[in-house]
Specification:
alpha/beta, Rossmann fold, Dihydrodipicolinate Reductase, domain 2, 2 domains, nine-stranded mixed beta sheet, six-stranded parallel beta sheet, 10 helices, 33% helix, globular, binds nicotinamide-adenine-dinucleotide
Length: 380
Amino acid sequence: MAKKKINVGMVGYGFMGRTHSNAFSQVGHFFDLPYQPVLKTICARSADKAKAFADQWGYDSSVTDWRRLVEDKSIDLIDIASPNDTHLDIALAAAAAGKMVMCEKPLGRNAAESRKMVEAVEKAGVPNMVWYNYRRVPAVTLAKQLIDEGRLGKIFHYRAKFLQDWTISKDLPQGGQGLWRLDVGVAGSGVTGDLLAHCIDTALWLNGGIDKVSGMTETFIKERHHNITGKTEKVGIDDASLFLARFDNGSLASFEATRYARGHKALYTFEINGEHASIFWDLHDLHRLQYFDHRDEGRTRGWRSVHITDGDHPYMNKWWVPGLQIGYEHTFIHQVADFLEAVSGGQSAAPTFRDALATDLVTDAVLKSARTGQWENAKG
Ligand SMILES: NC(=O)c1ccc[n+]([C@@H]2O[C@H](COP(=O)([O-])OP(=O)(O)OC[C@H]3O[C@@H](n4cnc5c(N)ncnc54)[C@H](O)[C@@H]3O)[C@@H](O)[C@H]2O)c1
């Protein structure tokens, strides 16, 4: 039977525009779904580059103003893969036009923006999802299954960090192409909304709600040349952000994100310690889950490094044969697959805009706590 087509209008052809375009292109080859996404129109500000991207990836057409996507009656789904300051306006307009909306993380530059976006998609009743893709790493999905089955028992500790080192040079400018993450007006915040947001989304999913946080941030380089204004300007983002948290289930947590950890490019790790068992995961070794179970027979008890490639591991029966691993890009393909499955039942896929608002409430609380020096409520 012919599959129903879902015409995609994508905003942005940068890093995420490519991962999403790849996911929409690949998903139908590996997953048996009721819908087939069609790369309809790509939007980016440079007409030449947008056209070249459309030709390379097989989009039917290209435009330079996202409003053209929203007005286009043939487009079913708007996918927002542009910088953070564009998310709000595009999402509100797309929802008002009755389109399905996917949005990159963080949902808004702050929780107030995210709340408006949640209200818009819920009022319009349109399926929505935010691209916190690490949930769909098979090893991370397996961690969720093990926790939900009670294998860890009562959870005592959650520990996460996301380390990079690309902004250490004081000569690095802020703002503009490729450097919008350093411009607080565009990004909203620094590593808190960028890297910590990933750690928080995963944590809320695996370990439940966060009650209170106590945060600390630092901006190591106080002034940088601004590529758009041409002047040396104050840096408004946080370069490093750490916080302590108390979860609703009583567990204690520590989180750390920085772009000043020399030698680390994208070291995202988390460890969870429970009464019976512990779990450790590392993005650099994403196809493995480290698992320790105290109930194992004593003489051979120890940390197991489980290679997540078997057919009974999450998503893996869609891929190659046992023993052969998959990578980063597959997490986006899994996310599209789950979204299309949900849409066939008239639903959104997690994390929804509302789920992502919960993350933004935590990041807002971390930034507030760093300013006030007090513990802050992380639920708004
Ligand atoms: N899920 C993840 O792991 C992950 C990873 C990286 C980035 N992100 C998020 O994805 C979004 C994009 O980040 P990126 O790394 O792809 O950025 P990028 O700089 O690589 O690409 C941004 C793209 O948006 C386009 N753009 C900018 N303003 C626009 C406008 N007004 N209209 C249309 N197009 C516009 C640019 O031309 C560019 O193509 C951000 O929200 C970021 O936080 C998420």
